[in-house]
Design brief:
heterodimer; A: MetI-like fold; 2 domains; 82% helix; globular; B: 259 residues; mainly alpha
Chain lengths: 255, 259
Amino acid sequence: MSGDRGGLLWHVGSVLVAAAIFAAWALATRLHLVQPIFLPSPSAAFANLWRGLARGDLLMLTIATTERMIYGWVLASLGGILLGGLIGLSAKARQWLAPTLELLRPLPASTLLPVGIALFGLQPGMLLAVIAFGAIWPVLLPTVHGFGDIDPRLREVAHHLGVSRLSFAVKFALPAALPDVIAGMRLSLTACLIITVVGEMITAQEGLGTTIMLAARSFRSTDLYAGIILLGLVGFLNNALLGLVERILLPWRVR
Amino acid sequence: MFSERIDRLVSRRGWLLPLLLMAAAEIALRISGIRSDGLARPTEIIQALLGLAADGAILQRTWETLAPILLGATIGGAIGLFLGTWLGLSPAAARLAGLSVELFRPIPPVAIIPLTLLIYGFGVRMEAAIIAFTCFWPMLLLTRDAVASIEPRLIEMARALGLPRRKQIVKIVLPAAAARIFTAVRVTLGIALIVAVTTEIAANPFGLGYAMISAEMSLRPDVMYAFLLWLAALGWALNAGLLMLEERLFGAKSGRSMR
């Protein structure tokens, strides 16, 4: 380790590399290498982003999309842990359900959108259900495996000590499965953001997905880039927040 | 492990459950006499699937989905492989690129659907561009980790032998990291299928995703579920086929590292 100064220099270096990418973007638009309709200058894109946030409309859209994503994620996480726990604790349930789950897992979550629309029509509740159901797999499967992989001797000891099934699940099984479950919740949040945006694009409900699609259709490229930057920002914050949660809940896991 | 998973899939009574559910749905729909735009009897779905197979529609749609995957995954994957090898070999480059990767990777691939639509319009190029963008990131990061974790003495030896840089990479580094790079390819292709179908459902009027959404819009739930079944089978077969290939090429233990 070269100490703090070395670390700082590396940070400065990586900021410079990122800045160079933006500078290349600015230069490409300045020299008219790319048509501005496809790639507006970074200053135009960020100025438009800032205007939209200050005016409040872009902010509202971002909040609408984020809200939908988070509701879907909470539903998917709770459902995944509860269902996964039930399936994982019972060997019988695992035998019956495992092949069905393995078959459903590789199905792209977005295929649920046509099914949801056909069954329930274009309701906000339908979209939420599709997001939750589509993003449940990354939580459900690690929970099933985590709860199922518990050392049988632990189970016997708990049984002889008179630990109830519920408190066995909460005190023994859940902590053992937690690292995988949290990693799964992280993937699930990414999936939620993707399904939310696609769902908005198809069902035309208010949000960033609809907005960027309309911006592209009417050739408003600065609005389009502002939306893409905001969606990238939401994804970035998701990663950062869950990384933090992981460090707080699982301090013994050195990454 | 793959063979274990096959055993689990073939031998267990778990196969009964989907069959029982389908039989229950068939009976319930027949008795209640419900006709809905969102439901179809399992026998109707299977009939629709056979019809689609007979007139070749299903192969045509599948090819329309696979072509942009092949094109996009090759382009995005190759760039990811190249840059990932570089970042894996040079810790300095990896640290310098760190912030940029963290800034650009979280952009959801579906967010660039409108952008590629604006640039290319509908078609293969638009979908391939999104798939290339999507495939670039997992290949970059997984290749970087694969290359960074190879035995450093191998590289020292290659240097000591006086191999030129390009030969060091082609003859020593890539073979040593091959098993983990293959895992990266398998994961990446799985993601590519998901993104291709998603793009087709959201915007691009080609392929299996569009077949599903257009069946939904023309009130043909039987056709929609037939394509859904086919997609489930395709996704499963892709993953299972690549897992089997991985076991054949690199032995049983490599497939376990990332399921």
